[in-house]
Amino acid sequence: PNIQTFPQKLLFDTRIGKTTTQTVRLRNTGTCVLFYEWILLPHTRSVEVADGVLPAPPVEPQRFFCHHPKGSLLPGCDVATYFAFRSELPGMFQETYVLRTSPDVFSPPDPLEVRAIAHKADAFASDREELDRRVAQQQRVHGVEEVLEDVLRQAKTPPPPPPDMTDRTVQERVFEENASPLPLHYSPPRYDQLSAIYASTVAQQQEGQDAMMEW
């Protein structure tokens, strides 16, 4: 007869006042029915208590529990054993269980070490979460502001629209600005005459360029 256990160690991590469970699987790898029982060794005790190392009290409360510690296992079958931990005090705790079988197996499994860490609830968890949320929000806002600043720096002001030269007031202003070095003054007939001369000159230049290209 033979039996296998997995895992061979358990580690619990929980807050005080809360119960947490883990499982150990047993598998009968022999050819006969096995009767088994998990037994808690009496000499083990808590190894450390939070806020200082203290001697074990005369009667220490039970913190580790084995549900359905006894049973039978057919050849080739496996079963799960549930172990639980609960503590009302913060600290680190340890116990050891051994597996007894009937009949005895050729290779008895190693003792099962169960360890646990019980810690107080974080009283400032909600405050930290709120702070993290605000910091993340500020980072997002700052990132958006940087993107907008980059876009605004790269944006160019569009050029102003050309003046409306059909407006006599605009004609007078532009004429006076450009003819200030000359003894000329604006008048609508004079402006129309100069505009006609300019248009004729531009047309003649364009005709000359077209003729040279054809030649």
From TrEMBL:
<dbReference type="Pfam" id="PF14646">
    <property type="entry name" value="MYCBPAP"/>
</dbReference>
<dbReference type="InterPro" id="IPR032707">
    <property type="entry name" value="MYCBPAP"/>
</dbReference>
<dbReference type="InterPro" id="IPR013783">
    <property type="entry name" value="Ig-like_fold"/>
</dbReference>
<protein>
    <submittedName>
        <fullName>Uncharacterized protein</fullName>
    </submittedName>
</protein>
